[in-house]
Amino acid sequence: MKILVIGASGLLAKPVISQFNKEGYQLRLFSRSVNQSMFDKEFEMIQGDVFNLNDLNKAMTGCDAVHISLASSNEGLATKNVVDIAKQRGIKLISKVSGCTVAEENRWFPMIENKYQAEQSIISSGIPYMLFRPSWFFETLDLMIREGKAMMLGKQQNPSHWVAAEDFARMVVSAYKNPDARNRIFFVFGQEQYLMKDLLEKYCKVRYPEIKKVSVIPIWMAKFMAILTGNKGLKEAASLFGYFEKVKESGNPDETNALLGEPTTTFENWIISKDG
Description:
Elements: E1 2-6, H1 13-22, E2 26-31, E3 44-47, H2 53-60, E4 65-68, H3 75-89, E5 93-97, H4 110-123, E6 129-134, E7 145-146, E8 149-153, E9 160-161, H5 165-177, E10 184-188, E11 193-194, H6 196-207, E12 214-217, H7 219-229, H8 232-246, H9 254-260, H10 267-275
Parallel strand pairs: 1-2, 1-4, 2-3, 4-5, 5-6, 6-10, 8-12
Antiparallel strand pairs: 7-8, 9-11
Helix pairs in contact: 1-5, 2-3, 3-4, 7-8
């Protein structure tokens, strides 16, 4: 099977690509910025845009399956484009990284509406599919370290089952190998449940011992600062963290774990491997 990985330069794509490669799958990597320097091995690559149908058509030609790992602000349209071309190219399987709070009742939030529409495009396509709804990843902790400070937006009092990207990658590839995994939604939850602040403090203690405190910026203050400075990134982050203050992790990972094997990496295992 030859798999096209869309969004190949993203944070969650690299471990999935590595795992596919270990299992002997043929790969073609696609994104606007993907290049050979990102990987230890030489892969077939195409730089292109998911909003350009010609780029997608070229990328999918000769492929059997598509794995979508996007972080687009218009994920719904991007996925619809992928599905439209996939039908034309005779793609036999589509998988996609989504989120564990994607649900009808959360469509009021624009990001979730986008992911919901993306999922529906795939489900209604008639092409066999696998949708992955992971919780928070350990790898996102480093994104909260800026200029020698650890910062998070809002109190974030809803705990999550944090998962390692390596475990997620193994589960994605396991799904590709298992015929019973077709046309299913998989909730991917790690073994341990943490509040964001507690885990960020543990992370700093090991990786950044010079950082003695995690700063918690109120959502309203972050939004106000974004307006004053015209900082679009801060505005989007404040909106995202405001959403997660209101919405709890949802879904049941039991079926996922039974079919694909449960995640095994604890935070301590993960941080040791990262340092190694």
